[in-house]
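Thread: "does anyone have the structure for this chain?"

Original post by V.I.:
We have the sequence but no experimental structure in hand. Need at least a predicted one for the grant figures.
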Amino acid sequence: MRKILMALTAPLAACSTPAYRAPEVPVPSPYSVSSITPVPAGARAASADAPTPGIQVSTALASTPFWSDLGDSTLTMLIREAQRANLNVRVAQSRLTSARAARRLAAYDLVPTITGTGSTSRQQFSIAQTPGLASQLPASQLWDVGFDASWEVDMFGRVGRTVKAQGALAESSQYGLEDVQVSVAAEVARTYFDLRGAQRQLAVAGRNAVNQRKIVKLTEDRLAAGRGTAFDTERAKSVLYLTLATTPLLESQIALDRNRLAVLLGRVPNTLPAALLDTGALLRLPDTLFVGSPDQLVHRRPDVLRAERQLAARSLFVGAARAEYLPRVTLSARAGYAATAADSLFKRGTSRLLVGPVVSFPLFDVGRVRERVEVAQAGQEEAQATYNATVLQALEESEGSLVTYDRAHARLSILESAVRSSARAADLAQQRFEAGLTDFLQVLDAERTLLDAESQLTQGYTSAATALVAVYKAVGGTWPIR
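Reply from O.Q.:
Generated one for you, tokens below.
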């Protein structure tokens, strides 16, 4: 009796399923970095204590990807090749194809199902099956051809919701593909800038080694002439050896980055032409970033859109599961011909026809339906939590990447000034040493300071460039993927 009452009240639960609406998540209006006011270039030289310049964040969206604005044709070529040949992109494309096929498959439930049938059988009834007969009936052959048709009348939207849910999953896979493409493009750019940075550090170390060999030769000549000391010579050699010691690590990093780029392009390691990745001049990093607003971020970042489509699908699956409480009405038809001989088929008197509706209702099976609804609701709750977490992560990454690039960009200008001052100090120390006005320790200190400044400048540029990549990945980028 309890099951019957539940079955009678269940339609109310199914009818109360609300239509899906995309969730609204509160987001901040501007990015916090946009409140940092850039310092004019002329004001920088007024005082060493002046605040470091900040970047400008525009709520407008760029019409081209950031790597196009940098003007590096090699980077552009690498990213385009990765979008075409990267294996993770191909996996995501296969998932999208599968999701679209699943949506088309679900849509077939909205139209009648028609299947052709054909059979032949030989049968003989026993005496027990034919009471009243004294002897067994002879065996007979039966030939049967025709078709069966059925169509579920989607009165309560169960099939329609399932089709819409599969469509939402297909859209989720589309955004999943775009998310992979964004990640691949960002990883290519990050690895490329890391490679360029290692190459420039290696070049800096090479130039410093050349200068330091000259200084070693000078100290040895002064020692031989009785004007120097063995201490000066050994200190000069020590600085040279420390510079040379950085070379193997940098060469290792360059090899790893080359191999990483090859794999990102769908190739085996160490197959990219060496000339393709030769070091080049430093590119000008932008002072203004066109990244839109946090609200635009929520409506354009691929992983957020993918999570929202997943939530939409799970919500629709809940509605489809609740519709299981309601009756199913199916129109069925069976038609064809049946005869005891094959040559008698399709003749008068051999046709058969069966047409009529079939109504099914989970009268004593409500428990299974209830558990399916609970499973669907749990999936919806998980999707809702995933969506909220994805939005928060997107906001965190965008804010964090903008702050990181802003400060890395400011640090870069300071390091450029440090290199210029260190170079002038090293020249002055060398001149004073050659004129006999100072000892060699000042030359060594000046050279070490210059080497450290140049190395930090190279590392600072690499950090700023990779931070720029992180910004555009965090905000979904302006990726011409579609």
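V.I.: this helps a lot. Residues 28 and 191 are 32 Å apart (CA to CA).
O.Q.: and Strands lie at 56-58, 113-123, 140-153, 288-290, 328-339, 351-360.
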